[in-house]
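Researcher: I'm preparing a figure for a lab meeting and need a structural model of a single chain. I don't have an experimental structure, so a prediction will have to do for now. The sequence is pasted below. Please return the structure as tokens so I can convert it later.
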Amino acid sequence: MVEILSHEMPEYLARRQAARRRDRLVQIVAGVIAVAGIVVAGRFLQPLNDIRLENQMVIDPDTVKGLPPIETLLAKTGTFRALAIDIAFIRAEKLKEEGKYYELRELADAICRLAPRFPSVWAFNAWNQAYNISVATYTAEERWQWVNNGIQLLRDMGIQYNPKSVALYKELAWIYWHKIGDFLDDYHWNYKAELAVEMERVLGPPPPAVSEQETIEWFRTIAQAPRDLERLLADDRQVADLVQRLDQVGLYPDETLLDFIAQNLRDDLSVERYLEALPEDERYELRARRLALLSDTGLAAPRERLLAALRSWVLRQRYHMNVDWMLELMEKYGPIDWRSPYGHALYWSSWGDKVTQGQINLNPNDSMNTVRYIMMALANMVWRGRIILTPDFAHPNQSYIELLPDTRFIRHLHDAYIELSEAQFGDWPDFRPGESAGSYRVGHFNFLLEAVRQLYFEGDPNSRREAQFYYDYLRRVNRNPDGTQKEIYLVPLEGFVLQDLRDAVAGFKTANMVVSQLIYQSFRELAEGNVERAVQLWEEAKKIYGIYMTDVAGDRLDRRKLERLSILRADGLESFLANRSIPLVAKIRVWRAVEKRTRQIVWDRVEGLLHKLCSEHDPPLDGARAFPEPPGMEEYRKNPEQRRERGPSDVSEGTKL
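Model: Understood. Here is the structure written out token by token.
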């Protein structure tokens, strides 16, 4: 029998084996936990990516259709990209000093693409082009090109890469409001004309002088138009048939169609009825066929649907504007004229404020200034929101443009002051609902003081009631620190307005300038077909004339009295007709609308000029048809309107005490 010997395992080996079993168990448990962690983390991946997109930590692929090739390449170079940017900035400054602006522009674009997530890079390069480079050029065309380059850099690229950067919206609104809309640049009128003509190409001739709501409804058709042109043509048989007929005359459903309509379907630009002879060539015949098709009343409905869709497409794709937000702004703030720089400043400031709400990386100053531009844009619409434009599509910067007050925006700006004050200062201890607050308060009161005067002199009952409402508001809210009524509000509305007016036109030169300017502006309104507004301006001129002449009635030598009102009106008409920047067709309309007596007064002075202008027109116009002689001239010449005889010319106008 074999004896089997057994030996017990040494203690140290037993401990080692037990340790190995524990290590294996720990590994298994850790592996299970790691797998579980990966699974759980995977569930948080999409929410984390959404947060990164929301807080603008990465580029949204849905917003930007792919990174620039240079960005994709140099993203792999790490810190070398920063060195490349520094070198490029140094080179850019040298190119600016050398006047090599076009090379500089290409380099600036490259710098922005190298650092697409840094808003300050986009803001600097846009400002550099719109301000520094533009003023270093010498022609209106060059200057506008560089201002527009700055706009496009921000609007078409910078904001697309950084849609949550309030600083970029602020900079873009500033260029529209200050560089184009203000009056500091020597070429600001050229910029205003360029922008107005550009937007008229897109939106077409503005709707006629209609109500505020009708203007909004006109834009609503654009905002609510189908967003897919191909689907529209597939679903709407009438529109598809119209497109086929347009194709037969060389017009296609794109921006070229909008351009043709803008240039040819404004009745107030047509002078064909006054031509000496109609031109006979293929181009004129083709144009006539196109106009006949586009003017066919039987095609009005499909034509409007097609044009609305085209206008919406251009606004969204080329100008990157949200048409729904544009409509919302019009419903909130009034009938915005999108040919105005102030409308674009309002859009980009308000849109920037909307899309950046709640962002964790907002600069408070940028945020407040962006909101402030909303009120600044509305204020400019009140004083300069109505555009009178006679476009020159071949040379847009030479178009005739004037900016006139539009009191329809007064109510909206008043409401904006109160609404934005509550948003910015509503948590202040002394904030009072229904009033402006903080840094907005003084500006609000100063604005209302001017608005009261403007509304009062419009003269119609609704404007007077609105003026009384704001005057009562000022009396109630704008008080002395101790709560007592301010002295300027102790008189009725009429006394408040007229006293201020007397102070403003106390001297002969000022009164003569104000009355003459109002008369001149009434002719501009008449040229645009705004008869009611033309009458209001004429009535305002007569009122100011009467107030001043009453105050100087005791001047026996007539040295401080104004010329007779009929003579001032005739002088205003003569100035209007002699202004070479005003299109001839506008002068024709005014000549036919003005009363006979005023035409008789100026006829002998302007007949030669008018016939000369007709002969110089391309093509020449028949002067007798365009500017017929006023009837009864022989009788008038026997007893013409006489100018007032002045007293001694060496006597000053004196000082009103």
